Amino acid sequence: MPTVTPGAAVQPSTDARLRQSSSAPGAMNRSEFEEALEAWSHAIGTEYVKADPRTRDHYGRTTGVEARRPLAVLYPESTEQVREVLRIASAQGIAVYPISRGKNWGYGDAAPVRENQVVLDLKRMNRIIEVNTQFCYAVIEPGVTQEQLYKYLKVNKTGLWMDSSGAGLDASIVGNILDRGFGHTRYGDHCLTTCGMQVVLAGGEVLNTGMGHYPGARAHRTYRYGTGPFLDGIFTQSNFGVVTQVGVWLMPEPEAFSAFFLSAGEESLPDLVDRLAPLRLQGILQSTIHVGNDLRVLSGRMRYPWDRAGGRAPLPRELRAALCAEGAIGAWNVAGAIYGSRETVAATRKLLKRTLSKYRVTFLNDRTLALAGRVQRFLSRFGLANGLGARLESVKPVYGLLKGIPTDEPLHGAQWRVRGPVNPDSADPLDCNSGLMWVAPVLSASGGEATRLVLLIEPIYEKHGFDALVTFTMITERAMICVTNVAFDRRLPDEVARARACYEELTNRLAGEGYVSYRTGPAGMSKLDLSSSVFWDVSARIKQALDPKGIISPGRYQPNAA
Amino acid sequence: MPTVTPGAAVQPSTDARLRQSSSAPGAMNRSEFEEALEAWSHAIGTEYVKADPRTRDHYGRTTGVEARRPLAVLYPESTEQVREVLRIASAQGIAVYPISRGKNWGYGDAAPVRENQVVLDLKRMNRIIEVNTQFCYAVIEPGVTQEQLYKYLKVNKTGLWMDSSGAGLDASIVGNILDRGFGHTRYGDHCLTTCGMQVVLAGGEVLNTGMGHYPGARAHRTYRYGTGPFLDGIFTQSNFGVVTQVGVWLMPEPEAFSAFFLSAGEESLPDLVDRLAPLRLQGILQSTIHVGNDLRVLSGRMRYPWDRAGGRAPLPRELRAALCAEGAIGAWNVAGAIYGSRETVAATRKLLKRTLSKYRVTFLNDRTLALAGRVQRFLSRFGLANGLGARLESVKPVYGLLKGIPTDEPLHGAQWRVRGPVNPDSADPLDCNSGLMWVAPVLSASGGEATRLVLLIEPIYEKHGFDALVTFTMITERAMICVTNVAFDRRLPDEVARARACYEELTNRLAGEGYVSYRTGPAGMSKLDLSSSVFWDVSARIKQALDPKGIISPGRYQPNAA
User: What are phi and psi of A213, to 5 degrees?
Assistant: First the structure.
């Protein structure tokens, strides 16, 4: 098993900031910091305040090209303890960097955006506070993982479905919401399905948004806006407070469900998007729909075939074609789902078939999936299954995601370019030397835009020796997010350097063309302010109003922070 | 025609605040105010700065029980002029109260919430800046009315549908969004269908939210969140800035459409809600669904029958039953619609029929509506139409609203208790002596909650001599808004006094039971802070950050303002 490689070790000799961060506590006055550690120990227990090098290294790891090693890590277990921790941080002027579970892979992981910060790991706050089956919601703390909520809903036979992002079993649901992540179902736009936040502000005040501040408000978890300004949005992609509880809407298990899949050729992307977009716009298809390229699908099933490629990268054209043929993978591969009653699902399936009549659409539900499994097992006895088994296996994780079932499967994609033996003990990209930096611009849902974006990014990836792993997600009725990532082996300095250059070029080029990222990591924060902008000034004024000493996550979605 | 009765005239002798407001400019230093008027005249033109008593009276009118007469009224015509106006207001420390069209009937109308404010009437800013038929959106200024956008979309054969609130032809779309109003279609939750705001702040800065601040952002009007904190929500139900442009999503005209209506008995309310709510929760019914009581429907068709009631009020039980029988009105009346393809609409209709099999559901589309009209005309020749004509007429405005077609029809309901001749020249409640104060608590979408609320409010209305006009709107997948209103004749001091008492009791009682209002008027602003609340403190801190001198609409959704 490979040993842990802290992010700080990537380029120890060239990165001044990293050098600085390994000599804790840096700019901080030593005695103030020690006073704070003592006060924190008193407040939350000595065993939950860790400043040892091993812990700091662990939290300073990254799948990116550089990371900030935190000064210490705190593990509060309750909102009350978070308040206390923040009061102490405020008093001593020490910055804290809250994380939910630290699984923000490819967007900064668990590491602070800037130097001299103390990580506030909220993983002990993992209570499922309420699940309501009549109005279909849960109230959860930041430490609740996707797997935890999924299992709770299943074991307790709640009849409720959640939405899962591709971030795996151990990822936090709240963390993903606050980063405005997305998933695969009708509730795929995570930011849209929250109802009522509890937020601890820098001074220790506890804010309840929506109707939560009204005693006994009966629609607290069913109506988001409350009365007066609707504040929830300002606590997403920001550093204005520490969110300690969120109401999350869940779906009642539908009477009927049908996943749909199709694979198509290279030229089909614009046509597929232009056929599917109107169905989204009309509210007929309600799930987020994913259109992944062949490399995206391949990366989920295997690692880069260095041998067959004769050591060359990116993937040579003929080999790429051969691998697609072997795996029955199209140049573009669509996955989505239909939810409703028996009648409405059947009707939507019919419409979808008509709309996509020039493609072969496969519809799957639990019954047909089980049937296909039986057929495959039968045929394989006679050697006739012809890759059906592999196709079924490869479809299963996505099929599950379309029903909100979390899986670690997509994480394997992060290992695409990692050489050598696989880590059998962990799917965590940080444990596998996976280099992973997301570049995820937003575009309007049109075939022309999709093609334009592909033509823009593919040559950049190629120039730097990387493969363009691409998924277009139809996230709303009008917009798509193009999720691509620089996949590299973090142990190879040359590849790391090229990854950095590739990320820089992609980010700059896309921004220049008006393709703004929906989300970004530490390397992207400073690029958010493309010109002197009132938006970021206003943002800074709100920050100043809520956190005057700037102790919460300075630099996070704060491009102009000093 | 009745003459205009300014709100200030309602209780001239008893309301000290009103007395104060009629002696302009009150607490203001006279010469500073005159300097400001001069500067404003210079900035936007003398003819667009009005401080004459007639104009001030006009804007001081209200359908409620008291209103603040503004010091003056300004009519800027552009964002640039709004900036200039605000800079002058900031410099002189004079409060301005922006209105879009001033049709916020029953929630404060055009009048400021507090004394000593200058109305900023944005009606000249009525440009439809962009309409995009591919991605289905419009960019509009605050002065754009429902009728104006509707006609534009129709005349230009855009194939796009908007959502209309019940506020009538002349009401502003932006104004309704910023008050978080709602309508009748799949896009009924207006706050959810905005994309990108332009906001002028107190200091004259122009903020573009979402992606609007990025030069050339290609998904500016198709993806709301942008990158970094999502700010749009804080400009709804607040006084943080003057919104001068909003991107508004529109619906592509669906391939198929079917309205549905049903009428049912008094005991049916909980059953209806419990049958419809799951279809909302499953995303099968996507429109806001309205469930109105008999009085709500009656008030749309007639005024209070004083003669038949023998002068008694509220409406005697037997007379109420007789009127319902004559008009074929149920105790509860449902209106909603289905949008989609031919297949999906047919499937949903089938499901709805099954779900509501114990009721008689009428489905209507353009074809069946035209057919019914022909049948009615034919039958009526033989005296056999039996009220079919009246029923068709009464259904048409609601049918239109379900397709997003604005109408003045719902405004007539405000005249329910007004005595004497009808004003033939105006549907504006302010021109008709209509007393109108909304009380609109939010509840979770369950039959039990609906029943509980009705049992709570009906006795209060009755006690004060008013009729409980009630509509439950299933606004989201989980919540309903119960829209009720105190309807009275503003010329009768006794009725006004009772209206005030009724409003007070309703508001206090509902809040005490945890039924928080989704929106409120001037009389309700001070009641928003039920206990010392971090929420309103945070709100005040953001206000302070964005408008340090407090010049924009002091008191509006600001319960603790000095």
Answer: -90, -5
Which chain A positions have a beta carbon within 8 Å of B207's beta carbon?
Answer: 534-535, 538
What angle is formed at CA A477 by the lines to CA A471 and CA A483, rounded to 5 degrees?
Answer: 15
**Residue numbers in A near B544 (CB within 8 A):** 545
Of A212, A252, A535, Cβ closest to residue B207: A535
Q: What is the pLDDT of residues A38-68, one digit of tens each?
A: 999 999 999 999 999 999 999 999 999 989 9
User: In A295-308, which positions are buried (b, 16+ CB within 10 angstroms) versus exposed (e)?
Assistant: bbbbbbeebbeeee
Is A376 near chain B, with CB under 8 Å?
A: no
H/E run at residue A115: none
Can you give the pTM of this predicted structure?
Answer: 0.94
Predicted pLDDT at A381: 83
Asked whether the bond before B397 is cis by omega within 30 degrees of 0, the reply is no
For chain B, the average pLDDT equals 92
Of B237, B479, B538, the CB nearest to A227: B237
pLDDT, tens digit (0-9, with 9 covering 90-100), for B16-30: 333 333 334 445 677
A503 Cβ under 8 Å from any chain B Cβ: no
Q: What does B462-513 look like in DSSP terms, one character per residue?
A: HHTT---EEEEEE-SSSEEEEEEEEEEETT-HHHHHHHHHHHHHHHHHHHHT
Residue of A nearest to B235 (CA): A229
Tokens read off for B457:
């409010």
Confirm if B236 and B179 have CB atoms less than 8 A apart: yes
Mutate to test the interface with A, among B191, B213, B274 (most CBs of A within 10 A): B213
Q: Which of B286, B514, B534 sits opposite A218 (nearest CB)?
A: B514
Chain B residues whose beta carbon lies within 8 Å of the beta carbon of residue A536:
213, 228
Q: Provide the chain A residues 511-540 that lie in CB contact (below 8 A) with chain B.
A: 511, 513-520, 528, 530-531, 533-539
In angstroms, the separation between the Cα of residue A442 and the nearest Cα of chain B is 6
Q: Which backbone phi and psi does B137 adopt, to 5 degrees?
A: -150, 165
Contact present, B3 and B15 (Cβ < 8 Å): no
Q: How far apart are the first and last CA of chain A?
A: 41
Q: Which of A340, A394, A320 is nearest to A362 (CA)?
A: A394
User: Position B306: which residue type?
Assistant: W
Please state, in angstroms and rounded to a whole number, the distance separating the CA atoms of residues A432 and A435: 9
Per-residue pLDDT band at A328 (split at 50, 70, 90): confident
- Identity of the residue in A222, A228, A536 whose CB atom sits nearest the CB atom of B478: A222
Burial track B288-309 (b if 16+ CB lie within 10 A, e otherwise): bbbbbbbbbbbbbeebbeeeee
Q: Is B545 in Cβ contact with A544 (below 8 Å)?
A: yes
Question: What single DSSP character describes residue A141?
Answer: -
Measured CA to CA, the distance from residue B68 to residue A344 in angstroms comes to: 53
In the numeric block, the tokens 């069946």 are attached to B368
What's at B531, amino acid-wise? S
Tell me if residue B309 falls in helix, strand or coil. coil
What ipTM was estimated for this complex?
0.94
**A538: its two tokens:** 């206003």
| Token output for A392 | 């079924």
Average pLDDT over residues B183-190: 97
Residues 415-474 of A with CB under 8 A from B: 442-446, 449
Please report the residues numbered 104 through 143 in chain A whose beta carbons come closer than 8 angstroms to any beta carbon of chain B.
Answer: 134-137
DSSP annotation string for A407-443 = -SGGGGGGGTT--SS--TT---GGGTTEEEEEE-BEE
Rounded CA gap, B441 and B516, in Å? 5
Cβ of residue A388 closer than 8 Å to a chain B Cβ = no
A256 touches chain B (CB under 8 A): no
Do A225 and B518 count as a contact with CB atoms less than 8 A apart? Answer: yes
